[in-house]
Amino acid sequence: MQQKRGLTIPHLIDEGLFSEPAAYTPDSNDLGIVIEHKGVVWVDIRYPASLCKDSDEAMSIVSKVLPEGCTLKLRLAASPLQTSAENPTVSLFKKVAEEVIGKPIPFKKEHGGTDARYFSEKGIPAFLYGPKGAGLHGDNEWVSISSLEKHYEMYRELFKQLSL
To answer: How far apart are CA 99 and CA 104, in angstroms?
Structure first.
């Protein structure tokens, strides 16, 4: 970026050239300003409810390990997905799915984000279970057709039982 005489750091911020104040010293050069090298890092912090009660607690934990001079700002907060394995709908789906595929399905936790968290946040049971595949959201994403067909059977039976 070319520096111009008469511009101040606050002016550069107002113009949208910097999202945060940059450090400067008035005696640094003949233009009167120096913009220090600065990096911005976006961090997606996912925390389990067993570790943090809320995003403020997660931010506090992360802030304690940041190097001096770093700041942490919250951009978005959402509750983690939390639905008990004992939930009747989850139990029914597990039973139906095991009958369709003919083997037990273990419960497990995974990292990642899902819009299902917004349902569980409101007390609506939500869980994730999907067909076999890989490359999620990438150029090489794929799904097994036979696994997708099994899921059709699972959901068909689940909806049948839920409507009884």
So the answer is: 9
Going by pLDDT thresholds of 50, 70 and 90, the confidence category of residue 50 is: confident
* Cβ atoms of residues 127 and 83 within 8 Å: yes
User: Contact, 26 vs 32, CB < 8 A?
Assistant: yes
Beta-ladder partners of 133: 143
Q: Is the pLDDT of residue 85 over 50?
A: yes
Contacts of 17 (CB under 8 A, 6+ apart): 1
Higher pLDDT, residue 97 or 60: 97
Single pTM value for the model: 0.59
Instruction: Supply the angle between the helices 88-101 and 145-162 in degrees, to the nearest 10.
Output: 130
What proportions of the chain, in percent to the nearest 5, are helix, strand and coil? 30, 0, 65
Selection from 111, 110, 109, 44 nearest residue 78 by Cα: 44
Tokens of 160: 């049948």
> Is residue 14 pLDDT above 60, yes or no?
no
Where helices occur in the chain by DSSP H, the ranges are 9-14, 55-63, 88-101, 116-121, 145-162
The larger pLDDT score, comparing residue 110 to residue 102, is at: 102
